[in-house]
Amino acid sequence: MFVAGNFISAVATVLDMALTFYMWVLIVRALLSWVNPDPYNPIVQFLYKVTEPVLSPVRRAIGGYRLGIDLSPLVVILVIIFLQQFLVATLREAARQMH
Questions:
Q1: How many structural domains compose the chain?
Q2: 3-state SS of the chain?
Q3: Could you read off the pLDDT tens digit of each residue along the chain, which spans 99 residues?
Q4: Which range marks the domain in which residue 19 is found?
Q5: Long-range contacts, 83-86 (Cβ 8 Å, 24+)
Q6: Closest CA to 74 of 57, 60, 55
Q7: Contact present, 19 and 88 (Cβ < 8 Å)
Q8: Are the beta carbons of 77 and 23 closer than 8 angstroms?
Q9: Phi then psi dihedrals of residue 84, to 5 deg
Q10: CA angle 78–82–88, rounded 5-degree value
Q11: At what angle do helices 2-32 and 89-98 cross, to 10 degrees?
């Protein structure tokens, strides 16, 4: 049973790291929106390609532009924090109980 516990623990760790990385990508994208970045810059294109599929539906759902500010990165970051606090913590606890 310890093998399954170790597997779940590893999944929790990788998921936590991936969520943290994506949160930082969102923060960088939000900071770039304050300036006028070169849209042909490969880094800017990467940030848009990685974040837009998540931000676009959230933006449509909350209608952030009606307020004059895009709140979708904040909403997605809050969802990421929730997933880290709930899902990752639950996976770690399940792995701990399997040991």
A1: 1
A2: CHHHHHHHHHHHHHHHHHHHHHHHHHHHHHHHCCCCCCCCCHHHHHHHHHHHHHHHHHHHHHCHHHHCCCCHHHHHHHHHHHHHHHHHHHHHHHHHHHC
A3: 788 899 999 999 999 999 999 999 999 999 998 898 898 999 999 999 999 999 999 988 987 566 678 889 999 999 999 999 999 999 999 999 987
A4: 2-98
A5: 83/15, 83/19, 84/16, 84/19, 84/20
A6: 55
A7: yes
A8: yes
A9: -65, -40
A10: 140
A11: 170
Q: Are 31 and 73 in contact (CB under 8 A)?
A: no
Question: Are the beta carbons of 32 and 44 closer than 8 angstroms?
Answer: yes
pTM of the shown model = 0.88
| Residue type, position 14, single letter | V
